Amino acid sequence: MSLIGLLAGARVCRSLRSVALMSTLILLAVLTYPVLAEDILPTEPLLRLNTDRHTAVINGIATDAQNRFLVTASDDKTARVWSLPDGQLQTILRVPIADPDTGSLYAVAITPDGSTVAVGGWTGPLNAHNIYLFDRVSGALKQRLSGLPDVILHLAYSKDGRHLAATLGGKNGIRVFDVASGYTSMASDHDYDDRSSWADFDATNRLVTTSFDGFVRLYAARRYDKPMVPKARPRKGDRPFSVAFSPDGKRVAVGFYDSTNVVVLSGVDLRQLDVPDASETSGNIAIVAWSRDGRRLYAGGKSGDPMVLRRWEDGGRGRYTDIKVSNNTIMQLVPLNDGSILFGTADPAFGVIDAQGHTKTLQGPGDLDFKNAVLRLSGDGKTAEVSAINPSRTFRFNLSKRTVELDPPSDTALAEPVTNTPGLSVFNWKNEYNPKVNGNQIHLQDSEKSRSIAIAPGGDRFVLGTEWNLRLLDGGGKLLWPQEVSVPSAARAVNIPLDRQLVVAALTDGTVRWYRLRDGIEVLALFIHPDGRRWITWTPQGYYDASAGADELIGWHVNNGWDRTPDFYPVARFRDRFYRPDVIARVLDTLDINEAASLADKESGRGSTPKAVIGSSLPPTIRIVLPTGKYTTADENLGLTYDARTRKDDPVTAVEVWVNGGKADAEDQVLSTTDEGRVGVIKVKLPPQSTTVSLKAYNKNGASEPAQLQITWLGGGTVAKPKLYVLAVGVRRFEKAKNIDLKFSDKDAEDFVNAAKAQEGGLYQRVVTKLLPNDKARREDVLDGLDWLKREVTNNDVAMVYLSGHGVQGADKRYRFTPYDFDPDRLERTTVTDTDILDFIGKVGGKTVVFLDTCYSGDVMSGAKAVPGDVDGFANDLKNAGPGIVVFTASSGKEFAWEDPKWGHGAFTLALLEAMQGQGGFTKRGVVWVSDIEGYVYERVKELTKGGQKPLVAKPKLIENLPILEVRQ
Engineering a disulfide at 489: which of 180, 509, 575, 865 sits with its beta carbon 3.0 to 4.6 angstroms away? Predict the structure, then answer.
């Protein structure tokens, strides 16, 4: 959660808007800022979280006139476009950023026609902030409104889209821009004695604003330099926060930061008309909104547990109803045309309250909520267990095993932080501003709140976690580090393991981070996705390890100056250099990144790892210029105009097109080429159905993130059913390793083929299979089978690859599948390598689904000079080999893949066969999607193995979901 305050001539505020609802010290903040060196826009790439949802407070929300889109702005330094009414992510809008605050977004607005999104917040050097205007469809930055003297707290477009109003921090009043003339600044009112937090237009373009100077101001249309009537001071609060015109413009509702009251003023002269019943509210209900017909008035904020929204009938004069909404502060309310209300919260979450008062959350947080968390550690700090409240689960991460356990059984070897010990007593440290140790005041920055403590074994020192920093202190409150250590978000829990080498902190952004105790240097970070399945760990330099499907949860943000859209690259784009589980495994032993890399390089026999930098070797970016929006057509011939951007000396070498996840033949006509990229038209033939078309650009450094266009087909015609090609390999025994017997691998493969054959006549016109059990699965046989798929599968077809057996790796760290002729003494020559498999599967024309039921079971490979194969890494490699590849893995991390005679199968394959045969309850719908299989197999394998094995799925963005089976009665 964010804070605001004047920080002793140093850093100011992690959020203005959000803390206006959450922190009383906002009232003491005077927002006059010096220019700081930290506000210079960095040119080097910055590592950032990259989830499909917000990971920090949603400060603002807005929708277009037809309620087709929702836009949200967050402290996580992104704005996002979502479709309505389903709340699905459409576009991520990225602004230039710098640590710690530049890029935090407090305000968002969208033009009534939905074409342009305006965002603002802490968006520039401290005395020169910006409003950014984005194209909603492409996410491209269209224009920057620069030179604003303070942070932008609220944005609002007029109902006709002709004006954009911005409210500012400090005593800087408001700014209004004329949209038709290119957003030129109109005469605006600067005569405010404190910050202005809200603005709203009525249907005639009159404007009403609030200010912490205590006044509400009303402006005539196009006369925004001076109020049309005397400014009014409502009698029920000193700090007016939000304001909203009733739909007819006759009334104005005002919510207060410092009061539980709401008042209704005259929309003509600001006389106080009504005071809705606010009895039994607490905190504040500072956010107000009217229903679209004006018959109901709503208010919410930080009131209740969970937070409630109060709804009054008869425009605020009638009875009220309290509606439970969220676990955290309600940040904004927006009326919809159907009578419902959109809400955005600090969870961060957003959703809808319908006219009957039913709440539906459309999207929840993209991270774990560690508020009130307890952080438990093993003695060496390599196992960390932390509780979350949203979702309410316990997560245990084991670095050595590379696994996450959900709600594991209690382990007494994991110790909670010590918060009190003889000779060292810390007081007022829990959510307080004035902590003390042994009676001595601990000196924090102004408005910095203490959140957590942990006393080191021996009791001679302790770490204090605050909203912005970590500090290592002695019993007298003296700082033992050279300086406090800045953290990306509030340190909700801290702990020091028994060996006194580390400080570990669980932060508000959902990360767990490890710091060296001796100097506070960060050495490792962990992010666990709220689904509890995916995780990624990384060092500040960018080396990472990740479970299957998790290598896009962080990425590199690259600023391109103040006037160009930043680029963003998931770390998967630099996998060949940065994916280093061998380095990650050594970091907590060495406590030095360079030493960990050196040891890992020496063991693997590779040369020295070069410095982990990416700024000089970036892949291109691409966007679709035309057509845009929700494109409809009855013409099978489509021409896409694209703009592919790249860095100088790294020219674009190719542009490829994918239709519904399958690679398509296309004609690429280059129109112009510069040092910064090229513009072209790519022509592709569409199938007679609604389609997703995706473009990817390539240079010598790799592939871009895809640009997508959704196409609705209006023409006739029918789509020929695809063929399904299945390659199934099951190796139970080995010709030269006779002590190994997996018992069911060959049967698993055979039964998978039989289940696939049953799909003929359903989704697939024909099913063609190739089964390779045991002695039919020599190395050359497996390669021939992969080559068969590459040759036979067309762009319209689907391929399935099922591999059951052992996966190992040698000193070179490459994943290897062991065929029937595997020789433990000739590992390199008698295994099918990851490169072999990738080379074929990456060239398969259609969509491909890979099932990896491979494992390393105990000591069966002793003497083979092999270790468990990195199935997570291999799955991510496969997923990234082509936009149409989905990968299922039987287990995660270093888990074994279980098999049991009573099942007659391995656990993973048993669950998979059950799903294919309709035992997952899919018969009611018929068609089974990837997500259906994913959910059923995960839960069923957990049940069979009592949590000992957790299958995962790695999916590219082009195939978030895919119909792959049809279950028939």
Answer: 509
Token pair belonging to 933? 């299989």
Using alpha carbons, select from 304, 311, 310 the residue that is nearest to residue 326.
304
Tell me the DSSP string of 875-914: HHHHHHH-TTEEEEESS-TTPPPPEETTTTEEHHHHHHHH
**What pTM did the predictor assign?**
0.90
**Assigned token pair, 910:** 């048993």
Residue 844 in 3-state DSSP?
coil
581, pLDDT greater than 90: yes
Options 2.40.128.630, 1.10.443.10, 3.40.50.10610, 2.60.120.200; which CATH number does 392-604 get? 2.40.128.630
pLDDT tens-digit map of 887-920: 999 988 777 788 888 888 989 999 999 988 878 7
Contacts of 695 (CB under 8 A, 6+ apart): 622, 624, 640, 642, 655, 656, 657, 658, 682, 706, 707, 708
The predicted model gives 840-857 an average pLDDT of 83
Cβ partners under 8 Å of residue 390, min gap 6: 327, 347, 364, 365, 368, 369
Do 488 and 506 meet the contact criterion of CB atoms below 8 Å apart? Answer: no
For residue 575, which of 612, 604, 629 has the smallest C-alpha distance? 612
Nearest one of 683, 691, 688, 673 to 626, comparing CA atoms: 683
Backbone angle region of 170, left / alpha / beta, with phi > 0 → left and psi within -120 to 50 → alpha? left
The C-alpha angle with vertex 464 and arms to 367 and 387, in degrees rounded to 5, equals: 35
For residue 354, what are its two tokens?
């319908």
User: What is the CATH class of 723-966?
Assistant: alpha beta
Q: Alpha helices of 519-663 — where are they, by DSSP H?
A: 575-578, 581-590, 593-604
Please, which pLDDT band fits residue 472 given cuts at 50, 70 and 90? very high
| Predicted confidence (pLDDT) per residue in 43-78, tens digit | 889 999 999 999 999 999 999 999 999 999 999 999
Three-state DSSP class for 460?
coil
Residues 6+ apart with CB under 8 A from 467: 3, 14, 448, 449, 451, 490, 491
What is d(CA 856, CA 896) in angstroms, rounded to the nearest whole number? 6
Checking if the pLDDT of 496 tops 90, the result is: yes
Boundaries of every domain in the chain: 17-363, 392-604, 621-713, 723-966
CB neighbours of residue 590 within 10 Å: 16
Whether the Cβ atoms of residue 684 and residue 692 lie closer than 8 Å to each other: no
Instruction: Specify whether the CB–CB gap between 468 and 487 falls below 8 A.
Output: yes
The answer to whether the beta carbons of residues 640 and 622 sit under 8 Å apart is: no
CATH architecture of 621-713: Sandwich (2.60)
* Integer Cα distance of 832 and 780 in angstroms: 9
Q: Residue 355, exposed/middle/buried by CB under 10 A (0-12, 13-18, 19+)?
A: middle
Q: Which helix (H) or strand (E) holds 349?
A: strand 349-353
Would you tell me how many other CB atoms lie within 10 Å of the CB of residue 276?
A: 23
Residue 143 buriedness (CB in 10 A; 0-12 / 13-18 / 19+): middle
- Report d(CA 462, CA 473) in Å as an integer: 6
Between CA 550 and CA 526 the distance in angstroms is 12
Report the alpha-carbon distance of residue 546 to residue 550 in Å, rounded: 6
* Class in CATH terms, 17-363: mainly beta
Both tokens of 83, joined, read 């479709």
Strand partners, 39: none
